[in-house]
Amino acid sequence: RREGRRLAPPPVRATARDMAFQMPGGSQAPPEVAMWGSASGVAPARSAPPAVELPGRAGPKSHTKYPYVTGTSVVAFTYADGVMIAADTLAAYGSTLRYKDVVRIKKVNETTCLGFGGEVSDATQIMKYLDEIATDDFCEDDGAPLEPKEVHSYLTRVMYNRRSKLDPLWNSLVVAGRSKGESFLGSVNLLGIAYKDDMIATGFGNHLAIPLLRAEHRPDMSAVEARALMERCLSVCYYRDKNSINKFVMGTVTDAGVKISEPFAVGTKWDLKAYENPSQHAVGTW
Question: Is 226 left (phi over 0), alpha (psi -120 to 50) or beta?
């Protein structure tokens, strides 16, 4: 029995919230100082991480890990008068042929055009960047417009910068241009890897169209010969790539400027004898 003795009240335990709002001198700090540090840049000596979830921040910052709406191959090569570039107008949502009127050949200025494959939304952002520098160049009116090689160099820096931030723009870009009588054709991918060549293809076209170009391409081809070769490459890509449709847009860059065609279809042939009974030599198929 403890008679005549007065028990002391139990000590009050400070909560994390109390500690977070306590400044070194014992005064109470406002919430914004307790959470983010004082206005002078000195954080409270006794502070705890805020246990309150901030609005609009459900979790850590995330990046695009996989492209969703994508375009497939871009094929381009030089010929006697300039550069020819083509791509279909499909933007696929996974394996779904979702959007069929997306033009993936864009004019940058009077000497340069851009073709892109990969994530369509990222390509839209890239075109905004190019529109900004093209507008600035036009407003300067100094008689020295951006040349194709300068646009290509700019895009290599943009793509490598985003790759270095672990937030790449998921695209393969093809820059086609002609300036001062010289043709230019270059490519850059999402890692910032860039190169220049007389023939370039992205996506499945790199496996399907490049062998044809290596066998038949000549730098001194006429415009008619170049179009015939381009249509052969596009038809092979359409035959073999399930994420392709028979609707293409072709661009040419010559001394006269950039010209982008209306959508067109290439000729196809499906009445081959092997197609009449495809299950003849494959037992169990239907």
Answer: alpha
> What is the dihedral angle through the alpha carbons of 217, 113, 158, 183, rounded to the nearest 10 degrees?
50
Residue from 46, 103, 25 nearest 34 by CA:
46
Q: Which of 194, 228, 167 is nearest to 202 (CA)?
A: 194
Contact 90, 96 (CB under 8 A): no
What is the three-state SS of 230-251? HHHHHHHHHHHCCCCCCCEEEE
β-sheet with 257-260: strand ranges across:
199-201, 74-79, 82-88, 248-254, 257-260
Phi/psi zone of residue 4: left (φ > 0), alpha (ψ -120 to 50 degrees), beta? left
CB half-sphere exposure, 66, CA atoms < 13 A: 3
Decide if 184 contacts 152 (C-beta within 8 A): yes
CA separation for the pair 84, 105 (Å, rounded): 11
Just list the catalytic residues: 64
* Tens-digit pLDDT profile for residues 26-53: 555 554 444 444 444 444 444 444 444 4
pLDDT in tens, 127-173: 999 999 999 988 988 888 899 999 999 999 999 999 999 899 999 99
Residue identified by tokens 């029995």 is 1
